[in-house]
# Entry
Amino acid sequence: MLRAIHFTLLAGAVGLSACSQSGDAVVDRALADINVVDETNLNEVMLTVGDPTEAVSYFTRALQANPGRIDLERGLATSLVRAGRAAEGVTAWQAVTAHGEATNEDRVQLAGAMIRADRWDEADRALDAIPPTYETYERYRLEAIVADSNQEWQKADSFYEIAAGLTTTPAGVLNNWGFSKLSRGAYREAEGLFEDALRHDPQLFTAKNNLVMARGAQRVYELPVVPMSQIERAELLYTAALTAIKQNDLTIGKQLLREAVDTHPQHFEEAVRALRALEDGAA
# Structure
């Protein structure tokens, strides 16, 4: 009888121990899940709003503690590029693309890092290695930039058009396409693309500035009818003035410089200096 009781108590103790161990495991798994969620959120913060230099340090430490994790490798590569360390970013993205879990998007990001590092031929080869069935905005935006650099205008136009159709926010790529046209001397087409960019994003100042240059190249120096602040108006007048001076329309250039100086709410040193040089006969 005593043996039976002892066995029963022992079995109960083992059962309690097993329950305790099982409970610990459940708690450990739950805590691990919470940590993953917290870490994921922190990773996102470091990639989007964190200081790029701090992000590089964060992902470097995280990778030392968790070597081989592709999400952390991607975070480090992205942060290096954001921090302006493009050459190191290329090396980091090469490590990502060599990972067994690498995706075509990783290969696109590698090409982008190569472009930033001025390694155009390698970027071209990296994009060529991606299957043509992988069609994304970023892939075609980079294809367009590379084609531009190679002066393959027909390909560039095709890629810009595809990229613009693959995003709901095409202002940036339309502006780039317009600048490509501007650099080729296709001023009317460039003007239309800058206007399209501003229809999608009326606040995009680079498109406003480029639009003024495209119009000025056609000797149309009046500012376009687009939303602009007082400071923007002064800066656009300055751009129009420089465009006029470049084309030897000096009287118009002087007038536009004076308007720029008068319009700017603060002291506009660049315009003042250009106007003084022009009036002194140095321009």
The longest helix spans residues 2-48. Residues 212 and 224 are 7 Å apart (CA to CA).
